[in-house]
Design brief:
heterodimer, A: about 240 residues, alpha/beta, five-stranded parallel beta sheet, five-stranded antiparallel beta sheet, 8 helices, about 40% helix, B: about 450 residues, alpha+beta, five-stranded mixed beta sheet, about 55% helix
């Protein structure tokens, strides 16, 4: 596979320069542009694998551009938000972005998220235009837009970044044995700084949070092979 | 009793009652004064006639019958005797009081103009009589008349007192209703003033009611708008500064990779992380609990588990002791921020966070204990004020803006809970958070 082509839209010249430099070093082909107008020009002439879009842009805002892009294509979008505002994140995802990262961000984290989004979207293939963002299992709901888990009683159950990444790997591939290496890779792709903890510790923490009254464990250990997510998962 | 002097109703009632009592008292006094005067005038004439008739009867009676005649004619306010000596001793004070009577007597009998009439006090009994009058007959004997006070002269009218009391009662009731009606708009002011900060876009005080109240309402609304503009201008300025700092910080962070010296790079990275957390704290403080997150059932234990696990992964000493789950109604991310601030404080200033969560009847209790130096009692209250930092560890590296506990306390209070600090007997600080929950 050739180098993925990233279109970077940001009005800050220095950030464009630094991000471009770093992403090129990380093995991406990068085209930096300043605003929505330049973005449209570029999209007419070149094919792009992913767009990194700043939320705060002069002229047309990032949210508007995002909605506009979504109306005509399934191209993956990673939003850059300046505020750590949860509402902005949810909004960005509602408007069709695939992921977001808030400033000030770590370049390594940005690269990891871009890779994760590319991996996920290519796996979904043609169903991209109707992406699923709600996974339900045994009455529980994992909402990937809000990054939120709600149990069968309607109670919000908090997850750490690591636990969320792990659970997402499980619900994307239920009733399949996932090796520790696979889970570790998936998690690394999605970036979690604390993932140096062994997968076993993360799994046991997730198990504790998923355990209901008298309910059997949802995550089964397959000796010598890895883990298996038992419940049936429905996408909505 | 204090209520009487402190409320408008009480004060008005007091003033009105005093007014009624004064008017009633004055009119009663005036009525009785004029009544007395007329009675006196009327009775002077009667007395003079009776005294003269006694005098004349005695004058024409044979000497042996004279005492009997005087006794027969006496009665009521008049005691009469006949004797060889005058009973009365002239007394200027009595004389001036009874001068009207004296003049009438002289007018009826010209002989009295000489020393045949003595008006004064009884020489035998100077106190029990109002006056003593002695009149000399032609043979040198005397008719002695004493005026005795009559009883029941003033008939106190009970019905007057009753009607006054009824009137006063009526006035009190009407006053209470009237003042309540007039002051009702003031309660709206009170509510508006109290909730000025609780919600920034609340409806102003309705401009209605009497003109004075309308004017006050308008002035109040203008003041509220000015305060709101002032606060929001400053908030926006601070938010803009904090927000705009993020772009240069992002650039700095990316340039870090260009720094060759590993030690320098790590030091800069640490400084950057601290600045970022300060900016995040400032922004989240300014945003307050106004986030649009909805109130939902949230598992406190899951939140505390994440916080404690993350702290352990970062190399800090943290422990959690709790039941499997405690559900409260709340805003998930806000609660997580509040509890995380408390735990981070314990780790930063107290070296350790011992978290205990417990479900009580209608409350969830979370305590976080540390092994730090605690907080001097006099600084306890200040801990919740924004931007105050009690330098517990005497260590400038601890950083922060002193917003952690302020944010935590605002969030907990917005959930109807309480947060308290206390120094543990064994040393260290204990932070207790109580959140309301549905009883099982």
């Amino acid at each position: 596979m050739s180098e993925p082509h990233i279109l970077l839209v940001d009005d800050d010249g220095e950030i464009r320069r630094l991000v471009t430099k770093f992403l090129r070093e990380s093995g991406f082909r990068v085209t930096p542009v300043r605003d929505g107008r330049e973005m449209r020009e570029t999209l007419k002439s070149t094919s792009v694998d992913l767009i990194v879009l700043d939320l705060m842009l002069p002229g047309i805002s990032g949210l508007e551009l995002c909605r506009e892009l979504r109306a005509e294509s399934a191209i993956p979008i990673v939003m850059l938000t300046a505020r750590g505002d949860d509402l902005d994140r949810v909004l960005g995802l509602e408007f069709g972005a695939d992921d977001y990262i808030s400033k000030p961000f770590n370049t390594r984290e940005l690269a990891a998220r871009i890779r994760a989004v590319l991996r996920r979207t290519s796996a979904q293939g043609e169903t991209r235009l109707d992406p699923s963002w709600r996974f339900t299992f045994d009455g529980w709901v994992l909402d990937t837009r809000r990054r939120e888990l709600v149990n069968d009683q309607g109670v919000v159950v908090d997850l750490s970044t690591g636990e969320y990444d792990l659970l997402l790997s499980f619900v994307e591939a239920p009733q399949r044995v996932l090796s520790r290496d696979h889970l570790l890779d998936a998690a690394r792709n999605r970036v979690s700084s604390v993932f140096d903890r062994s997968i076993d510790v993360q799994v046991s923490r997730l198990r504790r949070k998923l355990s209901g009254d008298n309910a059997p464990d949802m995550i089964k250990t397959v000796r010598g092979l890895g883990y298996l997510f038992v419940p049936e998962v429905a996408k909505a | 009793m204090k209520w009487l002097f402190e409320t408008l109703v009480g004060r008005t009632v007091i003033v009105l009652l005093l007014g009624i009592m004064t008017v009633q008292g004055a009119s009663l006094w005036y009525y009785e004064a004029t009544l007395n005067n007329e009675t006196v005038l009327a009775s002077e004439k009667q007395l003079a006639d009776r005294i003269i008739s006694i005098y004349r009867a005695v004058l024409h009676a044979p000497e042996r019958d004279r005492d009997g005649v005087t006794h027969d004619l006496a009665g009521g306010v008049i005691e009469a005797h006949w004797g060889r000596q005058p009973n009365a001793i002239a007394d200027p004070k009595v004389m001036s009081t009874w001068n009207g009577l004296r003049e009438r007597l002289i007018a009826l009998n010209a002989e009295f103009a000489n020393d045949a009439l003595i008006v004064g006090v009884d020489r035998l009994d100077t106190t029990s009589h109002l006056a003593s009058i002695s009149m000399r007959l032609g043979d040198g004997s005397w008719v002695n008349v004493d005026l005795v006070p009559s009883h029941g002269q003033h008939v106190r009218s009970d019905s007057a007192i009753l009607s006054t009391s009824l009137m006063a009662l009526g006035v009190v009731i009407v006053t209470i209703l009237l003042i309540r009606w007039l002051t009702r708009p003031l309660e709206t002011f009170e509510r508006a003033a109290r909730t000025l900060y609780a919600s920034t876009d609340r409806a102003p005080v309705p401009e209605q009611g009497p003109r004075e109240i309308r004017t006050l309402a308008r002035a109040f609304n203008e003041m509220q708008a000015r305060i709101r503009r002032l606060v929001s201008a400053r908030t926006q300025a601070l938010a803009a500064v904090s927000h705009d700092l993020k772009t240069p910080l992002t650039r700095l962070r990316m340039r870090l990779d260009e720094v060759g010296h590993a030690e320098t790079r790590n030091a800069i990275a640490t400084d950057l992380a601290e600045m970022e957390s300060m900016i995040d704290a400032t922004l989240s403080y300014l945003r307050g609990d106004r986030s649009d997150e909805e109130m939902r059932p949230v598992d406190l234990v899951a939140i505390l588990g994440t916080i404690s696990d993350d702290a352990q992964d970062a190399g800090a000493e943290a422990s959690l002791q709790s039941p499997r789950s405690i559900v409260v109604r709340g805003r998930h991310l806000a609660l997580k921020r509040a509890l995380s601030n408390i735990v981070q404080n314990a780790i930063k200033y107290g070296g350790r966070a011992g978290i205990v969560a417990r479900a009580e009847h209608d409350k969830a209790r979370v305590t976080v204990e540390d092994d730090g130096p605690g907080i001097p009692e006099e600084d306890m209250d200040a801990m919740f004020e924004p931007f105050t930092r009690v330098d517990r560890s005497r260590n400038r590296d601890t950083g922060g803006f002193g917003l952690g506990l302020t944010i935590a306390s605002e969030i907990v209070q917005a959930h109807g809970g309480t947060i308290t600090l206390e120094n543990r007997a064994e040393g260290g600080l204990r932070v207790t958070v109580l959140l309301p929950r549905e009883p099982d």
